[in-house]
User: What shape does this take?
Amino acid sequence: MVGVSEGHGSAQAPAASRTRVGRPLLSLALASMMDEVHAHSGAVYLLAPGEPVLEMAVVAGLPRAFAAPWERVGLSAPIPVADAVRERRLVWVGGEEEMARRYPRIAVVLPYHFSLAALPVATETTTYGAIYVTWPGGHPPVLSDREREHLTAACDRLALRLERALDESRPLLHEPDLLGVPAMGNVAGSLGSVEAARMVSRLPYGLCSLDLHGRVGFANAAAAELIGLPVSRLLGTQLWASVPWLNDPVYEDRYRGALFSQQSTSFVALRPPGDWLSFRLYPTTTGLTVRVTRARAVAEMHRAAPQPDEAPSRLVTISQVLTLAGALTEAAGVQDVVQLVADEIVPAVGSQALVVLGSRAGRLHVLGHRGYEDPHLVERFDGLPLAEPTPGTHALNTGVPAFFESQEQLERLYPLRHETPDGFAAWAYLPLIASGRPVGTCVLAYAEPHPFPADERAVLTSLGGLIAQALERAMLYDAKHQLAHGLQAALLPHSLPTLPGLEAAARYLPATHGMEIGGDFYDMVSSRGVAAAVIGDVQGHNVTAAGLMGQIRTAVRAYTTVGQAPEEVMRSTNQLLIDLGADLFASCLYLRLDPARGRAVMARAGHPPPLLRRPDGRVRVLDLAGGPLLGIDGSAGYPTTEVDLAPGSVLALYTDGLIESPGIDIEDALAELGRRLAEAGELPLDELADHLVAHSPAARERLDDVALLLLRARTET
Assistant: This one.
């Protein structure tokens, strides 16, 4: 059946009798499209019924094994066909560099020179799937208007035909993949005449013909002599499978690269004990011709890193593992890992649900799950002792994966399991072992009974190792993240005090790099009738900077409480920083506030100047007197400036992370901040703070910590 997506939801086509469609609809549409735009290969995907998953239906031009990692992909996967469906647009990738930049997971598995276009197969209301087509390396880096129009029109026509088939309850049955003409088994048939065959047999160098699967369809006597096997042993086999000294993935990679790029390539191989042979590959859309000669001189060999690959099934395995490994490296926290496994691995292996379990203090903990209609069925296992006889605890304790092909098989080993039916019919329990220790269990559930052959068990076990490593990194990241935020929260004020005649609002954003902890700080102090505000920035955004920031903030509070004047507070703090010997500097802006008189006295130590919005809406940058950064010169003085603070005025105090951004002039950034303060200054103070941060390019990039403190003078009633 055809899966469809309407709007934001998805639905399954209505049940219908198994009436065969008159012609192979998908194959013909794909072949016609490729012919119109002179594409080299392609595939049609259809939405799986009832699932946000694209399933490969028909492949053309290249063996399906080349695209095996993407036979089933989630709609959220970062690959061109999924992007085309989600965004309902044509996606164009103009070459290997663009592929590596935009879709690195594909580039890792297929590092070849080719271009790709992906399009949705959809009507205005319904999405049926997607198509991609590829061109070899000689295609221009830009898709022409003619090609774009042909591709779009072909996908629209296919969508209408699928819609018609669905309306008429005609299910789409299996269609074979479209490959080139298979290589012939006899020389005369391959070369067109007996005389041509005789001519080739007399050549002093070897010639072989390979089909798209890499199988030998013809080899002359010279090739057999050079390779060291009779022609009868070569025909119908893959060179790297039948010739032991060619059993190296680098050679197979050259064959794949030649087919993708449609450019000739070559390699040199050592035939034991000491004969070097040169292999030159000449590709076409139906296969390759290989010329074999003796290598007269081998100065050096540049060999790619080996990837174990002795048979087509292992090729699929390696590609799949590489793709999913690339996906898991992007996961930061535990929930990122769970989401990536749900989006990438679950569709790839054909399961319908997922549970990721961790262990702590001798108990199981549910780290995340997807695909369960009733989440309580999963969450009841949270806190289960590891001594309980369950398949999840057994896999975690023993490190041995468990595969249950049916519910009967599972309940035979775990009789208590029938008390908590989850609606699924087969399960794979994968122990997650990282650095030699168990970190959890990954449970994959299948809606129907599911056999687990040996090669699939090997793939799933390998994926368990990748998930374990990602999960271990994610747990460490989350622990550091919680530590950083806890420390930051302890060092910054939990709330701002209410001061007579003043409103206040503050925002703090840590830098997006590192531990997300920094040295920016702000505070307000009200003691013995004295009101003060301070904002500062300690050099760096790490634990050391945060610790020093806490000491400075505490010192400013103490000096304010004992009644020191603003210039004395700055001098005392400067001396403290020097005495601590921290080798870090800090900028600071300190204000003594007197809203009753409409005045503020300010002292500045190398800090960006504040902005003042007057009641009439005009904004100016306050050019304050000041001294050097704190922690540089113990004898430095910090002169003060008195500023009018009439009711309705707004003071904006900030750190440089709000205005400094690569490629943007600091004066322009400051002028833009002033313009936004002028336009939005009448907003409630909390909304104004959010507005200024949201519209700051520097705050969006967050290459540095950002602190903002807004003060509005008001008339007390």
Remarks:
- The CA atoms of residues 608 and 656 lie 7 Å apart.
